[in-house]
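Entry 14. Ran structure prediction on the chain below.
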Amino acid sequence: MFKKTLFVWMIFLLAACSPATPTPVPTPSNEQIELEETAVYAAALKGLYDAPSYVLISTTDTDAGGVDSTGETLGYVLENLHDVAPETVEGFRRRNAQASALRLDLDLGAPYSLLSRAGMSELFSQNQDGWQVFYDRYPEAWGITSLSRVGFNAALDQALVYVGTQSHWLAGAGYYLLLIKVNGAWIIDQQVMTWIS
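Output, structure tokens:
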């Protein structure tokens, strides 16, 4: 009887001490990703500028000149960030392989206008002081802001995004932001500046 009881206890202890099988993280739906992307945009803009309104370039960028097709800028960024999940980087690369149109229905916590590249060229070709024309048209804007698509990890609690803003001829900067989700809210965890003027 003693041996049988000891054997049962040993099996129980071994089962209790064995590593648990990790619960697989479900693949997020496109709708979940779109909702989280909007929340990341809102947190990034509020964290960097907290402006009363925004003027956004209508298509996504990953650098001052458009999409960083060589990956050189992203390589620099990754050398200067820590604890970035590989799937966050892969998601960022995949979602930013080419420029995408920003949606008109983003809830950014502040009003915004979309400005096409052609509209921006037209705005700045009107006279010598395109920025005066811009601020006459958008008096509460921080400047002209570009956003990338957002790369996420599988759990949707880490995000990588590019935000760049030009507010005058020699006043602007671009940042890659790593955000984390804490208690249901996105916060900027780290940032790397990739250009300044």
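The chain has a mean pLDDT of 88. Will compare against last week's run tomorrow.
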